[in-house]
TrEMBL record:
Sequence segments annotated as region (Disordered): 214-234
Protein name stated in the entry: TetR family transcriptional regulator
Keyword DNA-binding: yes
DNA-binding region(s), chain positions: 33-52
Species this chain originates from: Luteolibacter soli
Length: 234
């Protein structure tokens, strides 16, 4: 095979991935066909099977390409926080920042626009089908590590309650990423046009309050003097 032919195949594969990413972000995984992807990529319909084995194989590549870096960074950030805490509980706001912050850093490393990136991430994390094994196992590892950190920080919460709060928090995060533009339409612009940092800060304040409710930490917070709402410089 000549170098030119090899470069052409690599270029076709990359075009298919990029076309799939944009279509999945705009339409969702279930509504996009192989023909939709190949038409957008300017490729033959058979190219998807040639490069990825199947439509599902292409989906697995897209999922792995974006979800794994987010979960790897989540774990790295949590480990850094725990090392710094030297055995003490990590504040819940910092744990949630480690959980959310990777979306901000990964979008800067992506070739996608911020809008497409967040829509795609929302679609992927809300994807109803089975994840590729390499993605699924990292998800389990990451979730378990964050569960343990939250349980240590918020004593008094039952295990099932922590898992459900993590699940509910993740659901609201997915909705925010995938459907943020709907809020602009529903509010007729009153929701404003916040920066990514402002949205992250708002989400962390909201999620921290929900995670903390009913814990020993929440009881101690109620006894503190009430002043202006704290702004977290995330």
């Amino acid at each position: 095979m000549s170098a030119v032919a090899g470069d052409s195949k690599v270029a076709t594969k990359q075009r298919l991935i990029e076309a799939a990413e944009e279509l999945f972000a705009d339409e969702g995984f279930d509504r996009v066909s192989v023909r939709d992807i190949t038409t957008k990529a300017g490729a033959n319909v058979a190219a998807v099977n040639y490069h990825f084995g199947s439509r599902e194989g292409l989906i697995a590549v897209v999922l792995t390409r974006y979800i794994n870096p987010v979960n790897e960074e989540r774990l790295a950030r949590l480990e850094a926080l725990e090392r710094r805490a030297a055995g003490k509980p990590v504040p819940i706001e910092e744990i949630l920042d480690a959980f959310i912050r990777p979306f901000a850093t990964q979008v800067r490393r992506s070739e996608l626009s911020e809008k497409i990136f967040f829509k795609l991430m929302g679609r992927m994390f809300g994807h109803g089908c089975d994840m590729p094994p390499v993605v699924d196992q990292l998800f389990i590892t990451m979730s378990t590590r964050f569960f343990k950190a939250i349980a240590k920080t918020l004593p008094g919460l039952a295990a099932d309650d922590i898992w459900w709060r993590m699940h509910l928090m993740s659901g609201s995060m997915i909705h925010t990423m995938a459907h943020g533009e709907k809020l602009q339409r529903m509010s007729a612009g009153e929701a404003g046009n916040p920066t990514m940092e402002q949205t992250l800060s708002r989400f962390i304040r909201f999620a921290s309050a929900g995670m903390r409710q009913g814990s020993e930490d929440a009881a101690s917070e109620e006894t503190k003097p009430q002043g202006p709402q704290v702004e977290f410089p995330f």
